[in-house]
Structure formats: structure tokens, C-alpha cells
């Protein structure tokens, strides 16, 4: 992708920076370093308990880090969460004392935070939106400062998170991403893992992945139990499991329940707990597995020709990894089309640029020309998402159309930059069309505006989101599988007698054949009920029926209360976004968040000591300076070391929705470093002014890194056979973070460090139907500063 921009890395001055060799297991960085250093702090012991119960994965991790020095150390613990995951607990041990995290009302948490700071204690808050200060719905980071780590001693940390697992084409899986990036390595002295998988629906082809040698203690058609114990284990592969649902071509509806009649324990900060208002409710989950004839037969679904309009974001915020992931997904999408389909490509930043005036046939010639057009494009500052959506809809005049958006959702130009207005305007235009298209969104990046993109996807489509630390393959397969099918419409859930249950919520925003539709709800007293789910799939009505007992006590399925509480909080937040704040809704959110440890816009996770500086977010690898200030601030000016002075623009629509004057104002400006600026560390000065004329100054630092990595491809033969799986190896510079190989017509693959081969390696499958001829195999290396280095190898595809 040609955009001729200086490679800019804004370094570790913020709550989150992507690091080399950073796996999602969590690392403890020495306080004076921005990368792991096992000579100072190493991972001595790690225990992982994985429980997967009907689509909900609970991961509880204990990690013990060893200090190899004779001095007490400070450490920064970083854990980037997978998609659809939320932290549910955290604790740090001070010797033999366990110090758990606490969820407090945000105002109270800030008071405790300030009080601790005044006593020279270094406390920490985890709050929604603090990854970038931009979107209060972001939940993709956990970070904490750990002080002290005794000389020659150890520090024990505990982290628990929950993750919803999506089913696509009757397949489901779980990945614990413990493999470091690119050429990084990570090992643990003592490793223990326990995995339990249970499904109410029968399973087939259930297998553990990663090659870690789990010992399976029990396995049947509904799950397994497995254990692993290892010494000096190199975490060279991701750990997980994959399975398919043993569907016989028919739908199935199952119900699970949980009820603990004992009242909950008081909150740790309560001085006079209130007595319970009544008996504890029970909880249920109904899961409908929807058959998919195409997935069952292994054949591609056959349907009418499609009209695909691709909106591709080419604004500056899409630099580097976001751009590469969006391109890989676009390339894969276009290669799934047939000549009977039609498509067009629209690039957008502050303006839109159409590849063709109208959609054209998706034959090989047009697909290659469209990709060439995309590769030759340039990035520009500014984004008018509203204009792009308007122009995209104008191309969706044919039946069976889909508007496919590849973007991070940022928009700072146009008639409005308010996310609610952009979504409302689009929905109004969409509903006015005679044949409105599906709105399918592939969101990229850790700072994607998920709130806006979810609202757009509700217009007959779906949202798929990939983080920078996640493997792209799983998300890409799910995205492509959904694009080929129409979603289930008119989906509804009924219980008889209706008064037996209360507050029932769906867990999925869109459901497709071959996936699951799930509802969670409460019940007040034991009873026998019947449950029905019905809807329309591929134009045909279906109905599912199940009888269930709602028991007085049921100790199994411990995740259900928290799962229901999260769904209830999401419904209340949607109500607030639609109708405005109410005292009753906010109080209920706070109560549920405190009881079930949920991080919301109105609560904070008061974690173990760590420093947290505000205002202050410069996103790494993005030429955007974003600042969040106290409400009293009326202007912010940034002075850069290369002579540029920029006044930041107030983003009123992204101010934190706190009450009682505790919120923060959002400010932003875009900038580029000069191309002749030498590599090194520089300071940017922030000048803040309040309404009384008082000025305040803060300095932040960033790093310029502009030397691209080098790549050397090692291929046993330049002759590739159709349908063949070849071992691809490549050496790259030590600074390389990701290595990606692309062969036209095949899905991109990521090369990972292989200790056995002493190089980076991956297996690339040549499509069985790939036309014979000569192709360019391209391997791209990206370093931590998002510099790109590539090598192309000419290969011949033969029979």
C-alpha cells in the first residue's frame, strides 16, 4: 500500500503500547523498560484454568514472576484482551496476603484514587475508554503497575476474564493466544493447565490445538476434560480447542439453569449492608442451534447473484496494521465472488473515490484490477464517514446487495461527527430504500469505534472486529462465512407461562444459519415452562420447542448470573443512549456492576497500585494526538519539537458521560512528523487553558523509528502444485513484529518463530482450483514502529 508517510511510533507513555514479543498471556515489564527482560523479571510459574460452558469461556490465570536482581523492582503488567472478552477479576499477592480488585462507582473510585495518591501510594483504575481516551465502550486492555517486587523474590498475579465464543458454519473454537509476536520467544519454568469443555448440543471432531500434549481424562459427545503439566515450556504456539456441532440437519433448542438461594456476600467496602429484598432469583440460558445445509454437506451455498459494494477507509488513522488487515480481508472477499456477482470499490477519507461508476462483473480480470487500484491508493488526513456511507448506498440499487465497510469507524469531517447522528442519518437513508442492502462491517484496530459500527451493522448486517494482537485467520473465516449467507430474520423467543420469567435478553445482535441464537433471563420461583424460538431462514419459517424445569437450586453453570447482568447492563446503556440518563437506570447499572465485577461508563475497577496519568492519549502508530482533560479546560495547544503548533479540536460527542463534574473533555488533532526527522525520542508540549485564563503545561514523549525491517524468504522450490501445502520459511530483522505471506488467490498466512527450524515458518496451501501460471509470493515484515519491509518471490503454479 503506497502512502509515503513517515513511520511514527508514539512510545510507552500511555496506558497501552503494542510491544515486541507480547503475547496475550500477560507480561510483567521491568519499570525502566518497554519490552520484557527475562534477565530481570521472568515467568516462573503459570497456571491456567479454562472452563467452556455452552459458548461462555472463563479463563482464570495465575502467574508468578521471579525477580533475578538484588534490588526491589517495579513492574508494569499488561494483558491485551481478546475480542468479546471482559475482565471479571484481578488480584495481586503481597507476600501471603491476597489483595483483590474492587469495582466502585466511578466518582467514589476517583476519590479513593486521589486519596491514595496524596499518601504517596501508587493506585490504579481500570475504566472503560481508558485505552485511548476516545471511546467509552472500549474494553480491550488490562494494565496495572505492580510495586514492589522484592529482591530475589517473586510476585504472584491472578487474572480472570470471560469470553463469548461465536459459532459459524456449525463450527466453534477457543484460542488462548500465548504465542509471542513474530520472532519473539516466551517460556515458563512450571506450567499447569486444566481445560473443561461442555456443550448442551452434541459435538463432533472435538480436538485440542497447539500440540501441547494435554492428557485427556474424559471425553464424550458433549465435551472433554484435559490436563497439562510441563517444565521449561516454550510458549511457541497458541493453545486452544476446535469442534463442530454434530447437527443432523435439524435445529435444536437446549436450556441450562443456575440458582444459588443463599444471599450474596456483602461488598468489601460496605459498612452496613442492606438485608436482601427477597429470595435470590434463578437464571437460565436458552440456546438454539440453527442448522445449515451448506455447512453440513460441505458445499458452498448457492444463491442468487450478489451485488457487493466495498467501502475501504484510506484515512491516516488506518495506517500500518489496520490497513494491512483491511486489505487482506478485502482481497479474500473479492476472491470469494463469482463472475455472476457484481461489485464496486469505493475508497474514502475526507472525500470518496470510486473505482468504477457502477458495479461490474466479479470476474478475475476485474478483481485483479480493483486490487491494483487499491494498492496504488494514498492515505489522506480527515474522514467523512457519513459521505462514504451515502455514496455506498447509492451503489446498492440491485437486489441482494451488501454494503461492506472496512474501517476503524473514525470520522472527523462532514455534516456531523457525532456517532449517534452518523448512525441515525445512515439508518434513515437505509430505511428509505426500496431494497436496502445488508450492512456488513469489518472493524479493525484496538481503538475502533465499536459503538458506532455496531449501530451501522444493525441495519440488516453484522459486525466482525479484530484486534491488533489477535490472529486474523479466525475472524476472516467467520466474516467470509457470514457474507455468503443471509441472516435469520424475525427471530423471537417466547416462554409459557410468560410470567414465569423476567428480563430476557438476546446475546447476539445477528444470527446466521449454522450459528447459535442465545437468550438469558431471570426467574423468581421454581416452575415448569415451555420455550419456543422461531424465525425465518433463507425465506422459510422455522420453530424450535423445548420443555424445561426452572429449579429451586442448581449449582452448575456459574457463569449465568454474570452473563445475564452484562446483558442487562448493555440494555440499560442502550436505553440511556436512546432516551437520556435516568437516576434509576444509572443506579441499577452501578449495583449490577459492583456485584458482578463489570466495568461500565459509571463504574471503575480499582485495581492493584499503578500510576494512571490523565489527560493524555497519543495512540501508538497513529498521527493523532488525542487528549482528555478536566471539564474546566477550554483550549489545548500542542507544540511539537519540529516547529509545528497545533490547536486541538474539542470532540463534544466523545466527552466522558460522567456526572457531578467528574467527566473529561475529549480533544484531538492530526499531525505528521517530517520525513527528514532523525530516529530518536522527542517531547511534545501541551498547553492547557481553563475558563479563568489559567494555563497548565504537560510534556509527553514519542519515538521516531523509520528504518524498515529486512526480509529473506526461504522456499524449498519455486514450483508449487495446485492443492499442495508447502512449508514457507523467512528470516527477518530482530525488530520485526509480524510476518505475513500473500499469494494471489490464497488466504494470507502469518509466519511465526519456530524454535525447531530456528526461523519463522508457516504452511501455505495453494488453492486446488488456482489457474496455472506465474505469480508473485510476497512476504511483508512489520516492526513495532509499523515500518514495512517486503520481499517478492516468483513462483510457478503447476498441476
The CATH topology annotation of the domain at 307-478 reads as Rossmann fold
Q: Can you say what the CATH homologous superfamily of the domain at 307-478 is? A: von Willebrand factor, type A domain
Approximate shape: globular
Q: Judging by the overall fold, what is the CATH architecture of the domain at 307-478?
A: 3-Layer(aba) Sandwich
Q: Characterize the largest beta sheet: strand count, sense, and whether it forms a barrel.
A: 8 strands, mixed
Which percent band covers the strand fraction? 35-45%
Structural class: alpha+beta
Ranges with pLDDT <50 over ≥5 residues?
1-24, 119-125, 128-139, 608-622
Region (Disordered): 258-284
Domain VWFA: 307-483
Keywords: Signal
Signal peptide: 1-23
Protein architecture, described:
- By secondary structure, the chain is of the alpha+beta class.
- Among the domains are: 252-263 and 279-297 and 488-593, Immunoglobulin-like, CATH 2.60.40; 307-478, Rossmann fold (3-Layer(aba) Sandwich); 617-704, Sandwich (Immunoglobulin-like); 711-798, Immunoglobulin-like.
- 15% of the residues lie in helices and 42% in strands.
- The chain contains 10 helices and 48 strands.
- The strands form 10 sheets. The protein has an 8-stranded mixed beta sheet with strand order 7-6-11-4-3-13-16-15, with no helix packed on it. Strands 41-43-46-45-44-47-48-42 form an 8-stranded mixed beta sheet, with no helix packed on it. Strands 20, 21, 22, 23, 24, 25 and 26 form a 7-stranded mixed beta sheet that branches.
- A hairpin with a 2-residue loop joins strand 30 and strand 31 (540-550).
- Helix 3 (321-336) runs antiparallel to helix 4 (364-375).
- The chain is globular and about 70 Å long.
- The chain starts with 7 loop residues before the first strand and ends with a strand.
- The relative contact order is 0.14.
